[in-house]
Design goal:
By secondary structure, this protein is mainly alpha-helical. It is built from 6 helices and no strands.
Length: about 150
Amino acid sequence: MKNRDRKKLRDTKVGVWLKEKAPEVLDTVGELLPDQGALGVVKRLIDLDPNMTAQDKMDFEKMLLDYEANAQDNVTERWKSDMQSDSWLSKNIRPMVLIYLIFVFSIFVAIDSADSVNFTVNNAYIDTFTILMTTAFTAYFAGRSYEKVSIRKK
């Protein structure tokens, strides 16, 4: 990840905006990392703030969209770099992860469906697997769609 992804929220463009428009929100979330859910929390706080004007909320939404577009561009660049690599693994790791997740999920469903098998998976593993599948599918399919759209625009 690039260095900007490791900055605390207070040290980003969003942090500068919050310092001016919503310093109490910045005091609450300024030490969090933007790529670890902090932006969603901030958005919720801004949406609920009765002192925030409609224009301020719109400006914040635009800033979030710009941030997300920039993050997607960074992902696209990493994927392009992987595809230009001489490494077979770099070029194929994402589809292999998807195939693996689908395979494991299918096995779990098949075993769970068999009445004769006493099969239980800990809820922590189910939650983790759900997050992995959601993240992998979203990144691969939505990310690929975004990548194709952004390439066409250029």
